[in-house]
Amino acid sequence: MGWFGGYLRTAPRPAVPVGAQMLFQDPPVWSAGSPVRLSAAHGGRRLAVFGPCGATDADLDRLALAGDLPSLDSAATAWAGAYILIYDDGHGALTVWADPAGACPLYTCTFNGSTVWASSSLALAALCGSLPDAGWLAAHLVDSTAWTPGVSAWSHVEQVAPGQRLAAGLGTEPVPVPYWTPPALTREEAVDRLREDLAEGVRVRVAGRPVSCDLSGGLDSSTLAALAARCGPVTGVTYHPQGIKAGGDVGHACLVARAHPAIRHEFMALDDSHLPFSDLDALPLTDEPAPSAITVAQFTAQLRFLADHGAVVHLTGDGGDNLFMPPPVHLADLARSGHWLRLAADAQTWARLYRQSPWPLLTSAVRQPRTLAGAVGRMPWMTDYGMELAAPVTAAYPDTLNMGHADRALLTEARYVGRTAATENQLAAAHGIEMHNPFTDTRVVVAALAAPAVERWSARRYKPLLSDVVAGLLPPPVLRRGAKGMFAVDHHHGLRVNLQRVLDLADGHLADLGLINPAMVRATLRRAVLGVDVPWGRLEPALGAELWLRAAEKVDQWVTWEERAA
After folding, report:
1. What CATH number should be reported for the domain holding residue 137?
2. Spatial distance between the Cα atoms of 499 and 563, rounded to a whole number of angstroms
């Protein structure tokens, strides 16, 4: 996997990863296979930018020369892409900026009295000799999107809060400082910004490189494929059940490919070897449990398919649903602001969509806003001890930005997708594929967030905000379609085929830690085998966490470090 890191200030006995490229010596900064852009100015001032960034070389040179915090704070979100800024002031101290959307997560730990930062918590865990953090795991089982400062999946490794910069001057301890506040835009302004930043976010990743893109026929992947096609040839890959190569999602994918001749349309047939819960032992270790853990057989086959077709860069639509298909949590904001007539009208509209009475929605809007954002009650397999351990980690993150319920929910979801997409990118890197997720870019997330919450949804249009962004880019039938096909049937089928292997996961590390009741997990799995609808969104993270713990147990050495004289 490609990653990067360094020290916040001069260290007496720094440890550095074996084989890494040293970019700065004092304080040390390195790249372990991660592309970087560098700029320097007089007085020893130096700037490093990791990740795709729309800045020109001249932009970076001007920024390194200016070197003032207001300019650097602004630059951390000024350009399209997903990137991290590192600035050396020339006097032995560094400042790092964590992007507000969380798509480039940063972590820290303490080694020999010095603060080490890195883009990989797994790498820092190897340095510190850390073990998986039981409190984080418990919180992951209760609410996989939950996050509070000071924790990560590894003990003694902390994630830097998105939207904060971290610096340590000579003789001072590291201090995290918020540098970002969300803007407010009209809906029209948000659409214009999204159109510009999505296009530029794709361009900076694909220009002049062999690129592929998921082409499922849905709005998110179709948007990225069409934008990539404007930059040059792109391989659009449609995955389909074996023997079914027409109609539904496949038909919409074909429409997009025909509309953009630069798309070379390829098809990959999925058979029983790609079913969920297959080949679970193939899962490598990542920073935290990867969302694709249960579908690793299909994901691995897709990566091999892409590599065989010459792809170097691959675009996915992850994050699009979270930004453009929000739950009805804006009802809570209407209740809080006293807009009762609009609240009643919107609750009735949502109730018709859900085919239920509006009263539960109204009650939740007033008394339990988090349930409108998707929060559910305790899962039957969670133990009392697990719930107690999770409570401090799943506590509400302090709202220092004065955001409404809908805005907080959108940002929380976006940050979760961005952080976990980084684990998927680690899996892809093992196959020589750079995976990118433009919908998790800070400027894209911020533009969606800046649109008024009550105008992000519609009862009559699917993903109305994104539909307006790509008007004229995609064929009308693709713009007019509703939700894509669902694949729960594949999960039921895969579970039947691999039942014994999956049942064995119930009696593992999570049970040994006292976090789950294995009998209740097995009972839920057996219900799913019978075709009963189960909470896959909560069950899969639990099974994925067990697989992650087993992968951690098998790995003898993650990253090798060596100490050097200062």
Report:
1. 3.60.20.10
2. 47
